[in-house]
Amino acid sequence: MFGFSRPQLIAFLVLLVLIVFLPFVLYPVFLMRVLCAALFACAFNLMIGYVGLLSFGHAAYFGMGSYVAAWTMKVWHVDASIAIALGGLTGGILGLGLGYLAIRRSGIYFAMITLALAQMVYFFCLEAPFTGGEDGIQQVPRGFLFGFINLSNDLTMYAVVAVVFLGGFLTIHRIIHSPFGQVLKGIRENEPRATSLGYRTDDYKLIAFVLSTTLTGIAGGTKALVFGIATLTDVHSSTSGEIVLTTLLGGLGTVFGPVMGAVVMTSMENYLAQFGAWVTVTQGVIFMICVLAFRRGIIGEIGNALKLKL
Amino acid sequence: MTDTILETTGLTREFSGFVAVDGVDLRVKTGTIHALIGPNGAGKTTCFNLLTNFLTPTRGTIRFKGQDITGMKPAMVARKGLVRSFQISAVFPHLTALENVRLALQRARGASFDFWRAESALDVFNDRARQLLQDVGLPDLSNVIVADLPYGQKRALEIATTLALEPEMMLLDEPTAGMAHGDVDTIVQLIKRIRKGRTILMVEHNLSVVEGLCDTITVLTRGKILAEGDYATVSKNPEVIAAYLGSADA
Q: Can you give chain B as a three-state secondary structure string?
């Protein structure tokens, strides 16, 4: 199913069980934060892990998705499903425009262009009236899903977030294991050769980029809905950096790595919050340990030890 | 002229003042194996990059099957039936041998933008891919990750991948470079087998390979054509000998 190998299917079932039962043990709002970060990281991993392009500006799509979802909920009072979809649409359209410019370069140049474009989006959000500038968009009502499911209950909201996450996760898995994904892997492995076989590689990279930013926008929109807030933090370059860190920590180019990375990163932010600035220091240290000692990331190393592709 | 498949006129490429390829008029006859030889830095690989439009010529035109392909996108050139290989082995290292060949066969579907479809949509190509692997002498390696293959087999796989596109004309950039003797012979035999119905233009350093294989040889030095003809003619040309072995006053 969905091109899962046997060990991957088992890991997926474990993930599924955890998603279903954990909200009865842990605080659902924390778990929702993890799931939003996990979807964001998975979408980001689609670019770095399967196309081999490091985007340093994914916060732009996350943040804009978050702003648009929050604004349409608060001002237009649209349905929650529409708000999330609009978040994804925003990410996709923005990704099409900015990706069209960035995709012409690769490696460090691609990273720098995406960073520069994301900074432009940040300053746009800082100045544009609808974002509320420094204040952000606050007190966004969760509203209703499909007009009748009240989302103000945390567990109901959690179910929606879980479905959105699983949908995104499976979509990404399908993309990777499709004829399209096969060409992407070819481009990652040897782009000149893919060109010499007659593939217009820029087209494939752009489509992958738009798919990634759409899912990122969906993650941002969902996050805005959960917390009822969209702020400058969501579009800030630190968010872009953090998602790179999350994905690296969990395991670049693995299916479950970004999820694991999101669990670890969000837990640290949550449970170490009482130590204030020490969170950043701890993250820095963990990142260095990761780069020095286990470069494949947590899931990457586990997979390597068990000789499995996870 | 129907018997000329590829023709260049005044093909020139300059790199900020340095002329790598200088007014080359090359004519490759349909169905022949044509070799491009010359000392290091003669412009052979640049020439290849120009022919497949991986580089844009500064001046000059390229005609393939009578059509002007100068300035066309490299992916389009490949679709016209002019497919190249690379000097360093051009495989997809972390895919299996089968997937490597299949990626070329997949071109037959047109553009593969269908990200929503399962990979099993590609299973129809598996038999043909296995057949191609068998043709180049790699029958049992379908599921081996290519990075683990020895060099000679990578080159053979590369040829299988190129063949999968059924190109009318193949450009092979030093197909035997860096190979052990036994492997060289395998590749030569392979090229002999696949030449049927195709035109091959190859860059080659190894003169003994050229001798037994190629119908026409063009010698390049410093971006210019020095001599052209069959092996017997070219190998006796004093200028060629000088270019290869160095003249007395060099």
A: CCCEEEEEEEEEEEECCEEEEEEECCEEECCCEEEEECCCCCCHHHHHHHHCCCCCCCEEEEEECCEECCCCCHHHHHHHCEEECCCCCCCCCCCEHHHHHHHHHHHHHCCCCCCCCCHHHHHHHHHHHHHHHHHCCCHHHCCCEHHHCCHHHHHHHHHHHHHHCCCCEEEEECCCCCCCHHHHHHHHHHHHHHCCCCEEEEECCCHHHHHHHCCEEEEEECCEEEEEECHHHHHHCHHHHHHHHCCCCC
